[in-house]
Known about the structure:
alpha/beta; five-stranded parallel sheet; Rossmann fold
Amino acid sequence: MDKPKVLVVEDDFATQQFMKFLLRSRYDVLFAASSDEVDNILADNQDVTVILMDVSLRGSEDGLMITERLRKTEIWKTVPIIAVTAHAFPADQQMALESGCSDYISKPIDQTKLFEMMERLIAANA
């Protein structure tokens, strides 16, 4: 059985490596560091089952802007998007949910919590 495909949108290389280490045993992991990379990867991988979206991306669009744009596209309207951020304030969580994120996790990432969240969201979207 194929592993579920996950797109990690993260522009920090060290965090990318950590996420790869964390996820690779359970998921087929793809990475994007910018909005252009997100668009290119999703165009070629329409079977992505969940997206982990860094909120604080540098560049023309941050993670919440990308999420809002993806939610306007039919194929990505219901795919789970988990906001990943260093900010744990309730206002940040509310902004993530309002932009279209399915859920929210703050850094440092609790592996058990992340896996439970991903499995729950993937199952709910199946």
